[in-house]
Amino acid sequence: MRKLRIFAHISLDGIIEHDAPYKYGAWTAPYRGPVGMQLVLDAQGPQFDLLLGRKTYDLWSTYWPKAPSSPMADRINAATKYVATHRPESLAWGPVKDLGKDILAGVRNAKAVNGPDLILWGSTTLTSLLLAEGLVDEVVLITYPVLLGEGKRLFVDRDARELTFVSSASTPTGLLMNTYRYVGALPKT
Question: Can you tell me the distance from the alpha carbon of 59 to that of 57, in angstroms, rounded to the nearest whole number?
């Protein structure tokens, strides 16, 4: 069974995205660089498949297929995209597979197939659902040294969860990449 790993760019106060129009623009850009890109590439591995919500799939399909060749673009474009959608007939950027009407069964089936790790980028709806169902193996947080105050948070699940620290790496710009293994519900004392 392959791993399901959640990746997220996140501020110190837990924000992954801000509703447009956003006065801070691309808040991650000043902290990125060759070292940060290499950390992400190394953490993802040379091959992976993607698990995407429909909004993320639609957004990425307007950019990545046209992006210049690079290790990141080439890996993303080559990955099989497993998509949670009610409109599978409109999935054009491939290779692509619809998770089906029962998203949880679709994710379980995708995990059961031999292949590279599944990586989830972007979808807070899927993140919460998959954590609640215990389908997540690891969470990789790429944390930026900013406090945004408001916006979309990665973790909207209200249930307490336990993660175990696996590793950490940093860049000279203050970007931190922390990897955690999912344990399950936080025990009540």
Answer: 5
